[in-house]
Amino acid sequence: MDQTEVIAIALINNVSNNIKNNDHVCPIGLEPIINPVTIKSSGQTYDKTNLNNYINHEKKHDKIMNGKIKEPIVSGQFNPDKDIFDNFLLKKTFEQN
Questions:
Q1: If pLDDT is split at 50, 70 and 90, which confidence band does 84 have?
Q2: pTM for the whole thing?
């Protein structure tokens, strides 16, 4: 097994363990969602830290057009200043489990 295969297997195992331990995995960071935020236009939920890191990366590389950036996972665009809300209901559900 070469180094690429070892890394791929380790990544798959890490994601698999996260999914077993927490069914709510952020599609950006592939880690459990701690602080859920949702994009209004798509309804897609991310971990707030991961989404903020993504937004900062896009801003740093001038990928904002008309105040909007491309969504990280689903197709479409969103305004990072207007289209994101804290998903308190989902957060409460996570805390109860």
A1: very high
A2: 0.73
